[in-house]
Amino acid sequence: xxxxxxxxxxxxxxxxxxxxxxxxxxxxxxxxxxxxxxxxxxxxxxxxxxxxxxxxxxxxxxxxxxxxxxxxxxxxxxxxxxxxxxxxxxxxxxxxxxxxxxxxxxxxxxxxxxxxxxxxxxxxxxxxxxxxxxxxxxxxxxxxxxxxxxxxxxxxxxxxxxxxxxxxxxxxxxxxxxxxxxxxxxxxxxxxxxxxxxxxxxxxxxxxxxxxxxxxxxxxxx
Length: 222
Known about the structure:
Strand content: 15-25%
Low-confidence stretches: none
Shape: globular
Number of helices: 6
Strand order of the largest sheet: 1-2-4-3
Oligomer: single chain
Radius of gyration: 19 Å
CATH superfamily of the largest domain: Metalloproteases ("zincins"), catalytic domain
Mean pLDDT: 85
Order of helices and strands: EEEEHHEEHEEEHHH
CATH topology of the largest domain: Zincin-like
Helix content: 40-55%
C-alpha cells in the first residue's frame, strides 16, 4: 500500500474570536519523530512535525489547543525580525554585543558581512562562556556548533551532549549568550521545561527572566 503524503497544510485560527482573528496556515510534515513538534520560523511561518501514525484530525486538534501560543510566538518572531532589519544592518549601523556600531566609512553593512561577523564573534566568545557555565549548571557539552537559526536561540541533543548556538546572539548583550548556553546545558540534564529544568537554569542564571525579556527586545537599545 502506498505511503501517505508526508506533508500537507492545515489552518489554525488565532486571535481568540476578536475582530483581528486570523487563519494561519501550518505546514504539517510526517517524520520519524516521537512527539508533535511545533515551531514558528522567521517571517511568521508555522511548521508542525508529527509522527507518521498521527492523523490529520489529531494534528488539527493539537494546533487548535496551541492557538494562543502560536499567536504570541508569531508576534515575537515577527517583531524580532523587524528589529533585526532595523537595528542590525541599515544606514551603516549594526548591533554587536548589545551596542550600536557604525562602519568606519558610514556605508551600509550587507547581510552577508553581518552574518560572517556574527559567526566569527560567536566562535571566539563561545568557548569561554561554556567553560564558565558548565560548572554552574553541572553539565558538560561534548561539542558545540555555531549556526544561523531562524526561530531558536539554541538547541541541543541530550543523547550526544552536543549544543548549537545561534550566531545572531552576537548582536545582543553578552549576558544573553550566557543565558542561552546555560539553557542548552540544562537540557542535557533535563529535556523538558519543567520545574527541575528551571531550577537548574536559575542556579547558573539568577536573573533569567530579565534576560528572556531582553531577548524579546531589539539587539541594541537607544
